[in-house]
Amino acid sequence: MSLLVVGLSHRSAPVSVLERAALSPDAQVKLLQDTVAAEPATEAAVLATCNRIELYADVDKFHAGVAELSTLLAQHSGVGLEELTPYLYVHYEDRAVHHQFSVACGLDSMVVGEGQILGQIKDSLARAQELHTAGKLLNDLFQQSLRVGKRAHSETGIDRAGQSLVTFGLEQLAAGGDVEEWAAGRRALVIGAGSMSSLAAATLARAGVAEVVVANRTVERAERLAQILTEADDTTVTARAVRMDAVPDELTRADVVVSCTGATGLVLTAEAVAQAVEGRTGQPVADLADDARTTVKPALPATGVAAEENCPLDLAAVQGATGFSVHGEAAVAGMNAATLEQHAAWVAGGTVDRREAARRSPEVDAELITALAATAATVGRIPERRKPEPAAVIPRPAPAVFFLDLAMPRDIDAAVHRLAGVRLVDIESLAEASADAPMAADVDQVRRIVSDEVAAFGAAQRAAHITPTVVALRAMAADVVAGEIARLDGRLPDLDERQRGEIRQAVHRVVDKLLHAPTVRVKQLAAEPGGAGYADALRTLFDLDPETVAAVSRAEDSTDKKDRPA
User: Fold this and answer.
1) DSSP β-ladder status, 89-92 and 3-9
2) Quick one: pLDDT at residue 376?
3) Sheet holding 422-425, edge to edge
4) Smaller CB count within 10 Å for the chain: N or C?
5) Do residues 145 and 104 make contact, with C-beta atoms less than 8 angstroms apart?
6) CA atoms within 13 A on the CB side of 186
7) Which of 50, 105, 260, 311 is catalytic?
């Protein structure tokens, strides 16, 4: 097994980088095709969600595989390799399996414990199967990860540790209040009709919104989703579908807007949102950033003598034609270390023991002065621990419209954050909020499940790796027995059929007994870490034809694909 994962996620990269690196469905297809066409990889699968992009591959060389997969990710994401590399993580063999199982259980999700990732893993596997880029290793891995994820959710309370990204986003919109109370009676606009948008629409309907309007480029999909919402037994919501060109009008009537499309550009600009809110409220929408820029902040005190009362430096001595500033390089020129330390203590509001400072040698003073002078020359000022003046806090009016952007790259202009009367929650703000979310005690239990399953998967893969060699060995033994029986038939033609049968059975029993203990033991040893070498040892000791072993492997892969459920 040579499983390799190269990727980036909300844990390794800022949202701005994830947004730029997002892969369209067509880009994912091309990435898979190019990966299996590359020399180090024989299988490939892409797991691309709103907060992760991961490329899985079966490679024959680790370093070459890392280099090739990283380059391919950069090429197809459009982010330069040098810029992308600092945010990439690499997992290999058992660590890669551990990562995939952790992802499937929701341990690596932005909202710990969310179950949407299972559907995304299933879609990823289906795409790789459709393109014939997933072989035995990735099929086994992804199918087992789905089983591990389901086990984690059924055997533990991991669901209590978190919820779907949609639910978490609605909680952020409700500012910590009860979502059902916040949603009751509101009108919702859902832009997009994919899996995430459908989940958002259903969640809003169950939360008690009065109406859900679905907008989508393919209006038939929007109509189908609206019909499902209307016919659902657990809601009484009114749902209807509209075309995308109706979004501006619907914005003026919506209380809550959720957007999650596959668009590569913005779906809602800040100007469009401002116009919609203005049309709804009848009042111009203020840009809080503009207000912040015009807010007058308290001025810092001047650096003259009067402003620097009680400063231990002799300001009068250096004040003159050139002027003096405690922020400039002149502050250290010719001053001894004791005086400079007094100045630092004065800035920090503390005191310094002059007697201790006086005991220092001139060499120490010289080193300190040189260092401070170098700092001043580099950064233009002497670093001081002055506390910055607090900026004026601008009161934000209560939001009239709530926006939830679950798309990657973003659908809604980030500048909407600045608009008064609007609350926007996007992937970036969800990432910040989830960092403070509490972890459930069940997470530890899920981690134990993952560890056990990783060990079992590794053992099964290592054991399976030696199976073709064992089968080839037994086939060779059967050929030897058949040859010897044929030779015996020629030398003893007078034997009757019963005698010949007894001889054949005896020879077969001898061979089977000789091979039984070694083959059973070698499978056990191969299942342990580091046991991959036993297959090579068998092939060498019994001089097995490598092509015969490979033929057995191909036959097993063919049978596995035929028996695999669609």
Assistant:
1) antiparallel
2) 53
3) 238-242, 211-215, 187-191, 256-259, 401-405, 422-425
4) C
5) yes
6) 28
7) 50
Structure tokens at 514: 């000789």
CB atoms within 10 A of CB 468: 21
Residue at token pair 């806090």: 393
Which residues of the chain are modeled with pLDDT < 70? 1, 160-163, 288-397, 435-441, 465, 526-532, 548-566
Rounded-to-integer distance, Cα 313 and Cα 333, Å:
12
Query: Which residues, in sequence order, are bridge partners of residue 52?
Result: 9, 49
Tell me, what amino acid is at 46? V
Q: Which two tokens stand for residue 392?
A: 């004026």
Phi/psi of residue 227, nearest 5 degrees: -65, -40
Separation between Cα atoms, residue 180 and residue 184, nearest integer Å: 6
Tell me if 174 sits within 8 A of 122, measured CB to CB.
no
Alpha-carbon distance of 357 to 291, in angstroms, equals 49
Q: What's the pLDDT tens digit per position in 72-94? A: 999 999 899 999 999 999 999 99
| Residue listed under structure tokens 């919501």 | 237
| Helix 195-207 with 219-231: angle, nearest 10 deg | 30
Tell me, yes or no, if the pTM score tops 0.70.
no
- For residue range 462-486, list pLDDT tens digits in order: 777 677 777 777 888 888 888 888 8
The Cα–Cα gap between 385 and 21 comes to 40
**Residue 311 annotated to the active site:** no
C-beta of residue 140 within 8 angstroms of C-beta of residue 461: yes
Phi-psi domain of 397 (left: phi exceeds 0; alpha: psi -120 through 50; beta: other): beta
Residues with Cβ within 8 Å of 180's Cβ and at least 6 positions away in sequence, in order, are 207, 208
**Which residue in the block uniquely carries the two structure tokens 């009848």?**
282
pLDDT at residue 318 in the model: 40
- Identify the residue whose tokens are 């015996």: 488
Kindly state the tokens that stand for 470.
């064992």
Q: Which residues contact 362 (CB under 8 A, 6 or more apart)?
A: none
What values do phi and psi take at 57, rounded to 5? -150, 155
Break the chain down into helix, strand, coil percent, rounded to 5.
55, 10, 30
Listed in sequence order, the residues at least 6 apart from 310 whose beta carbon sits closer than 8 Å to its beta carbon are 346
Residue type (1 letter), 125 = L
* pLDDT value at residue 314: 47
Q: What is the rounded CA–CA span in Å between residue 32 and residue 134? A: 9
